[in-house]
Design brief:
Elements lengths: L1 E7 L3 H12 L4 E5 L5 H5 L2 H12 L4 H16 L4 H6 L2 E5 L2 E5 L2 E4 L2 E10 L3 E3 L12 E2 L14 E4 L3 H12 L4 E5 L10 H13 L3 E4 L3 E6 L4 E5 L4 E4 L1 E4 L3 E3 L32 E3 L10 H16 L13 E3 L4 E6 L10 E6 L4 H5 L6 E7 L11 E9 L2 H4 L1 H9 L5 H4 L8 H9 L19
Parallel strand pairs: 1-2, 1-6, 2-3, 6-17, 8-15, 9-10, 9-15, 10-11
Antiparallel strand pairs: 4-5, 5-6, 7-16, 12-13, 13-14, 18-19, 19-22, 20-21, 21-22
Helix pairs in contact: 1-8, 3-4, 3-6
Length: 453
């Protein structure tokens, strides 16, 4: 069997790649060594968002888990074999293996591929911590299969996943401890956001442990003992390990297609998502470029576009947003303030200056926009937006106008000119953007790192 394009991986990136191929009218096959939909549908954003929403609504543990399973079933039905077959995509189940460039083996099937998109994703990884292999430990692959409500849980990892699920599990009535080896929560995001979230967690009764790496785990009959680097020992019925993932490439024999891996095991790609193997592109988590579902889906579509058409633009993550779905949410895009060039200007607006936050009594957070000079024009018109960070109850929605402005490469001041409804959360973005062109409410844009409040 020969195809114009073969996609390996049935997650967000793979589905995006395969569906884009059918839009181009080419023969398409998708090979998946697991349930279609991948991590996002089964163990990632779909169940986690369902759990977060259920916890926010005050559902009990059993009702929340029923919500999780119902959400998975509903969304999975739009991505199953029958649905893809109806779209003209042939689906093969099993481990794909390169025999040679352009030839794949799946079970007993030899598949010829003019072009290939690798989209095999990533999987949770457990570090070699003494005692961990014998402990009652969960990752995102298993936490949503809990049959009963734990008496307590320790979440190891205070990054995005650990913070999201830690808060949701706590709100379901489970005593929760969140542990992070770095000196603050969310070490990859704005320090201010991590501190605000730490205070929020403490106020909700979540125990927060930072600056203490896990050094050993001891399994007891009904609990796990976790020893951290400062000598303290914490107890919990079960553990949720949320410290990292690794790319899935084992068994593919990518070297037979001339595909190289990076030192961390990701598939090496160029600015057009092409690998070092002729006729092979890659997309999603397996590239190590941006580990988010929406980024993976877009990347999959772009990889197909690069494979089948001309490469008239390069792939960039500069204007792709990310959201931490804690309460409050944290949304960010582009350059972080501590990495902004000296020529940049920063507009900052705390939520207690936004009327909607005041009337909602939700004033913990901020809106931050970062703009740099525009070639030949400097900061006229507010300059060119290069980044933003928003912490607010609906930050994931609030950041979208910023993403649009960055994608369109429009003047930052356009965000101030666009009238937002009052009193909406989006009005805060308009007020912040106004600082890039004028003084408003006693505030004006400043240089990076020069907070005055």
């Amino acid at each position: 069997m020969d195809y114009d394009l073969v996609v390996i991986g049935g997650g967000a990136a793979g589905l995006g790649a395969a569906r884009a191929a059918r839009e181009h009218g080419v023969t398409t096959a998708l090979i998946s060594n697991g349930p279609l939909g991948g991590d996002c549908t089964w163990t990632g954003c779909v169940p986690s968002q369902s759990l977060i929403e259920a916890a926010a609504e005050g559902l009990d543990f059993r009702a929340a888990m029923r919500r999780v399973r119902a959400s998975i079933d509903t969304i999975a039905a739009t991505e199953d074999v029958e649905a893809l077959n109806d779209e003209g995509i042939d689906v093969f189940s099993g481990q794909a293996q390169f025999i040679s460039p352009g030839t794949l083996l799946v079970g007993k099937h030899h598949i010829g591929a003019s072009k290939v998109v690798l989209a095999t994703g990533s999987t949770p990884v457990l570090p070699p911590v003494p005692g961990l292999d014998a402990a009652h430990v969960h990752t995102t692959d298993s936490i949503f299969d809990l049959a009963g409500k734990p008496e307590s849980i320790a979440v190891v990892g205070g990054g995005v996943v650990g913070c999201e699920l830690g808060q949701a599990l706590s709100r379901l009535g489970i005593p929760t401890t969140v542990m992070e080896a770095s000196d603050r929560l969310l070490p990859g995001i704005e320090a201010e956001a991590g501190e605000i979230l730490r205070r929020r967690f403490l106020g909700e009764g979540i125990e927060v442990v930072t600056g203490a790496a896990v050094e050993a785990v001891e399994h007891r009959i009904d609990r796990q003992l976790v020893t951290v680097s400062d000598g303290r020992v914490f107890e919990a019925e079960c553990l949720l390990w949320a410290t990292g993932r690794r790319p899935v490439t084992r068994g593919l024999d990518v070297d037979k297609a001339g595909v190289e891996l990076t030192e961390h095991g990701y598939i090496r790609t160029d600015e057009h998502l092409a690998t070092t193997g002729s006729g092979v592109w890659a997309a999603g988590d397996v590239t190590g470029l941006m580990p988010f579902t929406h980024a993976a889906y877009a990347m999959g579509r772009m990889a197909t576009g690069y494979a089948l058409t001309t490469r008239n633009r390069t792939y960039s993550t500069d204007a792709i947003p990310a959201v931490v779905y804690t309460d409050p949410e944290i949304a960010y895009v582009g350059v972080r303030e501590d990495r902004a060039p000296d020529s940049a200007r920063v507009a900052y607006l705390p939520l207690d200056d936004i009327d909607r936050a005041i009337v909602a009594d939700r004033t913990d957070g901020y809106v931050k926009l970062i703009a740099d000079r525009r070639k030949g024009l400097g900061h006229r018109g507010g300059g060119r937006l290069i980044g933003a960070s928003i912490m607010a109850p609906h930050a994931g929605e609030m950041i979208q106008p910023v993403v649009l402005a960055m994608t369109a490469d429009t003047f930052a001041g356009r965000l101030a000119q666009a009238t937002a409804a009052y009193p909406s959360w989006a009005y805060g973005v308009q007020l912040a953007a106004a600082q890039l062109v004028m003084e408003i409410g006693g505030r004006t844009a400043r240089s990076p790192g020069l907070r005055s409040d």
